[in-house]
Amino acid sequence: MDNLLRALWTGASGMIAQQTNVDTIADNLANVNTTGFKSEKAEFKSLLYQTLQTKTTTANGNPKPVGAQVGLGVRNCSIDTSFEQGSMQESDSNTDFGISGKGFFAVRQENGEIAYTRNGNFKWALSGNGGMILTSSEGYPVLDTNGNSIQVPAGYQMSSVKFSKDGSLGYMNADNNWVDLGATIGLYQFNNPSGLTKLAGTYFQVSPASGAAQEENTIAQAQRSTLYQGYLESSNVQVADEMVNLIIAQRAYEMNSKAITTSDTMMEEANNLKR
Questions:
Q1: Which of 30, 56, 131, 253 is most buried (CB neighbours < 10 A)?
Q2: Do 83 and 117 form a contact (C-beta atoms < 8 A)?
Q3: How many other C-beta atoms lie within 10 A of the C-beta of residue 146?
Q4: What's the whole-number mean pLDDT along residues 63-79?
Q5: Is the pLDDT reported for residue 55 higher than 70?
Q6: Which stretches of the chain are assigned E, i.e. beta strand?
Q7: Which tens digits make up the pLDDT trace of 169-218?
Q8: CA-to-CA distance for 160 and 94, rounded, in angstroms?
Q9: How far apart are CA 43 and CA 248, in angstroms?
Q10: Other Cβ atoms closer than 10 A to 32
Q11: Apex CA 142: angle with CA 138 and CA 143, to 5°?
């Protein structure tokens, strides 16, 4: 009977793991049109193994090549984020930016902590000194290469203020010459972006696993990102792949459910033998 109970719990662990897998796939599909969203994938690992027979010797003293161990189920070990490049979608706004490469935009949240994102849907908002400040859709100030907010002082005609191709802020003066305002949109990289902590709204936060954020201009021999003004990076979710993964997860869930019902039937048969 203990063996049959073991099968019940093993099947249950498989169903729980596949439920998390389906949850992850559903989240990917729900965010297929979310700007800057990065798809995720559930990873699994086996649980403990119970030893039924060790690698002993035969009656003649010859060593047995293998023992007998049975697994006790599965569980989710991680949910990995794919940072593959999403496609660029053209935008009508000159404050929309798409990144091609490994870089992230940096914004300062309401609590003062810095978050990182691939969503370059930015807006101009009024600042406290009467000027304008570049913010995310949530109102978080966008940071420049020095970690400061990007602001235009009061008195400038915003229709003449523009960003250059490299993200530098400036304007064309009366002589049609470019005047730099001393701020450039910062792009930051990480040694291990998969270690970033996920926040709501396609934002990420630094963690010990990701390493510290490094502004691209300060990294020697860095593969620098390219900034595209008037474009937004779309989600990197591949709908066809997710639908296939969903079918596989559904079938795996059904098979684990079948293992539970089969074990239950066998236990019922064993109980009937005792009557």
A1: 253
A2: no
A3: 10
A4: 78
A5: no
A6: 40-46, 49-53, 68-71, 74-81, 88-90, 97-100, 105-108, 114-117, 122-126, 132-136, 151-152, 161-163, 168-172, 178-184, 188-189, 197-199, 203-205, 214-215, 226-229, 231-233
A7: 888 777 788 888 888 999 999 999 999 999 988 999 999 999 999 998 88
A8: 12
A9: 14
A10: 15
A11: 150
Residue-level pLDDT at 274 = 60
What lies within 8 Å, CB to CB, of 3 at 6+ separation is: none
Contact 171, 156 (CB under 8 A): yes
Sign of the alpha-carbon torsion through 115, 118, 124, 125: negative
Q: Give the span between the Cα atoms of 107 and 149, in whole angstroms.
A: 8
d(CA 253, CA 191): 36
**220-250 per-residue burial string, b: 16 or more CB within 10 A, e: under 16:** eebeebebbbebbbbbbbeeeebeebbeebe
Residue 112 in tokens:
């003062």
pTM: 0.83
**Per-residue pLDDT, 236:** 94
